[in-house]
Amino acid sequence: MNTETHDTKLKAFIFDVDGTLSNTERDGHRVAFNRAFEEFGIDWHWSVETYGELLAVTGGKERMKFYVDKFLDQDKIPEDIEAKIPELHAAKTRHYTELLSTGAIPLRPGVERLIDEARQRGFRLAIATTTTPENVTALLTHTLGADSIDWFEVIAAGDIVPAKKPGPDIYEYALEAMKLSADECIAFEDSENGVRSSTGANLCTIITINDYTKDHDFADACIVLDQMGEPGHAFSVITGDANSASYLNCDLVMELHQRANAG
Ligand code: XBP
Ligand code: MG
Description:
Elements: H1 3-7, E1 12-15, H2 24-39, H3 48-54, H4 60-71, H5 81-101, H6 111-120, E2 124-128, H7 133-144, E3 152-156, H8 169-178, E4 185-189, H9 192-200, E5 204-208, E6 223-225, E7 237-239, H10 250-261
Helix pairs in contact: 2-5, 4-5, 5-7
This protein binds xylulose-1,5-bisphosphate and magnesium ion.
């Protein structure tokens, strides 16, 4: 097979947001949930550890419901909590976007460099996330600038599909919106729910782990890294073959995509 021809098949990069572009969960979403609980006079506090367990369920509204169902004794469940969840979640989104506007939550190493290179080299960009659309817009605006929202051809987010990750639906939605097939794209994820979703949509997937996801099962990923890395600030390869590269750039992304789609 002509390698050059196959390489050119990669057309788009599809990014997860939370945990992949930025470590938003512990110091962003978790803090915002706690502020919303306080605002509503609800006596819950999600510690760093508890929040790690709650991340088993994607989606903030779904996560609160999971907490009520699995973590609270029956007599501790606030009255009408089901009805209050949408309002609580709206408050949480407000607190979260306020937090992002302080610039407190940066992008992970290598993310901006890889996105810049991908744009220069003509790759199409998309986002596939379970988080609320306003959260994506706020993160992009406060890290890459307001114009960056337009760099992403599709921002597939939140309730746009009813079945959140680990369902493949959000990636299938992004592929359909871009009119691309799975083998023309590559996904970037950080979690087991994420890789189940992306590989469920048949996408070759690059994982960058974080503290919450380092023990997850990434058997179906094409490579697992501790981070994207930068020139002079190497990544560690956890599983897979990075061809002696020390950071993730478009050449390595193309190589991984080619290997995954060969044969
Ligand atoms: C992130 C999530 C989200 C956020 C909270 O998933 O699971 O639920 O924690 O966002 P991904 P909302 O890594 O796929 O982006 O509260 O806005 O739902
Ligand atoms: Mg994620």
